[in-house]
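## retry 2 of 3
previous attempt timed out at serialization; input unchanged, resubmitting
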Amino acid sequence: MSEKYKKAIVQHIIRNLLEVKLLRIVQTQPTWGYKIKKQVETDFNIKLRHGALYPALNTLEKNGFLESTTQQKGKRARKVYAITENGKIYLETYYGLIKELLSEKT
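## retry succeeded, writing output
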């Protein structure tokens, strides 16, 4: 794969599929926003702004795909996200649809 295009393509994919990536991260283990941000940045070598991350997490929670709890960490409280059953179904549906679309003959 051409390195010239790789970073641009990954950034485009992450921007457009951020919610799916967030669900996948949280599906592995309940976690908090900063850790999710660092995971995306490590996995894809891109910077994820808080202004993109937290609205996406809020939307996923509002849509019933994530739920959050507040946990104390010393003097600080942090919001920990976990995937819901609807979130799991959404991911299964998403991957099934992608597989179906990619396997169609043109």
